Amino acid sequence: VQLVESGGGLVQAAGPLRLSCAASGRTFSRYTMGWFRQAPGNLRELVATISSGGNTHYVDSVKGRFTISRDNAKNTVYLQMNSVKAEDTAVYYCNAEAARRYYWGQGTQVTVSS
After folding, report:
1. Rounded Cα distance, 17 and 12, in Å
2. What residues contact 5, with CB distance under 8 A and at least 6 apart?
3. How far apart are CA 52 and CA 64, in angstroms?
4. pLDDT tens digits, residue range 1-20?
5. What is the pLDDT of residues 51-89, one digit of tens each?
Protein backbone atom coordinates (compact mmCIF):
# COMPACT_ATOMS: atom_id res chain seq x y z
CA VAL A 1 0.00 0.00 0.00
CA GLN A 2 1.41 3.37 -1.00
CA LEU A 3 0.10 6.57 0.53
CA VAL A 4 0.62 10.07 -0.83
CA GLU A 5 -0.45 13.09 1.21
CA SER A 6 -1.17 16.52 -0.19
CA GLY A 7 -2.75 19.78 0.88
CA GLY A 8 -0.36 20.93 3.55
CA GLY A 9 1.06 24.42 3.71
CA LEU A 10 0.86 27.70 5.55
CA VAL A 11 -2.53 28.65 6.99
CA GLN A 12 -3.63 31.53 9.18
CA ALA A 13 -4.90 30.80 12.65
CA ALA A 14 -8.67 30.20 12.72
CA GLY A 15 -8.63 29.32 9.04
CA PRO A 16 -9.41 26.08 7.22
CA LEU A 17 -7.17 23.60 5.48
CA ARG A 18 -7.92 20.23 3.89
CA LEU A 19 -5.44 17.41 3.67
CA SER A 20 -5.81 14.54 1.23
CA CYS A 21 -4.22 11.11 1.16
CA ALA A 22 -4.38 8.98 -1.96
CA ALA A 23 -3.87 5.27 -1.46
CA SER A 24 -2.94 2.48 -3.81
CA GLY A 25 -4.47 -0.94 -3.61
CA ARG A 26 -7.63 -2.59 -4.79
CA THR A 27 -9.09 -3.11 -1.33
CA PHE A 28 -8.95 0.44 0.00
CA SER A 29 -12.50 0.19 1.30
CA ARG A 30 -11.34 -2.45 3.77
CA TYR A 31 -8.56 -0.33 5.27
CA THR A 32 -8.81 1.55 8.51
CA MET A 33 -7.34 4.95 7.69
CA GLY A 34 -5.87 7.50 10.02
CA TRP A 35 -4.10 10.80 10.33
CA PHE A 36 -1.22 11.31 12.73
CA ARG A 37 0.95 14.32 13.36
CA GLN A 38 4.35 15.07 14.76
CA ALA A 39 5.53 18.44 15.96
CA PRO A 40 9.23 19.18 16.50
CA GLY A 41 10.46 17.58 19.68
CA ASN A 42 7.24 15.64 20.16
CA LEU A 43 6.22 12.06 19.61
CA ARG A 44 3.94 11.22 16.71
CA GLU A 45 0.35 11.35 17.90
CA LEU A 46 -2.94 10.10 16.60
CA VAL A 47 -5.26 12.79 15.25
CA ALA A 48 -8.19 10.88 13.78
CA THR A 49 -9.18 7.52 12.36
CA ILE A 50 -11.96 6.22 10.16
CA SER A 51 -12.85 2.57 9.90
CA SER A 52 -13.94 0.66 6.83
CA GLY A 53 -17.49 1.09 8.07
CA GLY A 54 -17.12 4.84 8.47
CA ASN A 55 -16.78 5.00 12.24
CA THR A 56 -14.60 7.89 13.30
CA HIS A 57 -12.43 8.66 16.28
CA TYR A 58 -10.68 11.92 17.21
CA VAL A 59 -8.14 13.00 19.75
CA ASP A 60 -9.76 15.40 22.20
CA SER A 61 -7.73 18.39 21.08
CA VAL A 62 -9.27 18.37 17.58
CA LYS A 63 -12.84 17.32 18.33
CA GLY A 64 -15.31 19.76 16.85
CA ARG A 65 -12.66 21.31 14.60
CA PHE A 66 -11.34 18.48 12.40
CA THR A 67 -13.30 16.00 10.31
CA ILE A 68 -11.95 12.83 8.76
CA SER A 69 -13.74 11.34 5.79
CA ARG A 70 -13.10 8.90 2.99
CA ASP A 71 -14.09 8.42 -0.63
CA ASN A 72 -13.68 4.77 -1.46
CA ALA A 73 -14.34 5.38 -5.15
CA LYS A 74 -11.26 7.62 -5.23
CA ASN A 75 -9.14 5.63 -2.77
CA THR A 76 -8.72 8.83 -0.79
CA VAL A 77 -9.05 9.90 2.80
CA TYR A 78 -9.39 13.53 3.84
CA LEU A 79 -8.79 15.59 6.93
CA GLN A 80 -10.79 18.81 6.98
CA MET A 81 -9.17 21.13 9.48
CA ASN A 82 -11.16 24.14 10.66
CA SER A 83 -10.41 26.80 13.25
CA VAL A 84 -6.76 25.81 13.20
CA LYS A 85 -4.52 26.82 16.05
CA ALA A 86 -0.78 27.36 16.41
CA GLU A 87 -0.54 24.06 18.25
CA ASP A 88 -1.79 22.26 15.15
CA THR A 89 1.52 23.02 13.47
CA ALA A 90 3.16 19.68 12.66
CA VAL A 91 3.98 17.22 9.94
CA TYR A 92 0.81 15.27 9.22
CA TYR A 93 1.07 11.64 8.21
CA CYS A 94 -1.50 9.40 6.60
CA ASN A 95 -1.72 5.85 7.91
CA ALA A 96 -3.41 2.73 6.62
CA GLU A 97 -4.08 -0.48 8.50
CA ALA A 98 -4.63 -3.44 6.23
CA ALA A 99 -4.58 -7.06 7.29
CA ARG A 100 -2.81 -6.12 10.52
CA ARG A 101 -0.04 -4.35 8.65
CA TYR A 102 0.56 -0.65 8.87
CA TYR A 103 1.60 1.74 6.13
CA TRP A 104 2.69 5.37 6.24
CA GLY A 105 2.84 8.25 3.83
CA GLN A 106 5.78 10.61 3.59
CA GLY A 107 4.04 13.38 5.52
CA THR A 108 2.93 16.88 4.69
CA GLN A 109 3.86 19.99 6.65
CA VAL A 110 1.13 22.15 8.16
CA THR A 111 2.20 25.47 9.60
CA VAL A 112 -0.28 27.74 11.35
CA SER A 113 0.60 31.41 11.47
CA SER A 114 -0.82 33.78 14.06
Report:
1. 9
2. 19, 20, 21, 92, 93, 94, 105, 106, 107, 108
3. 22
4. 999 999 999 999 999 999 99
5. 999 999 999 999 999 999 999 999 999 999 999 999 999
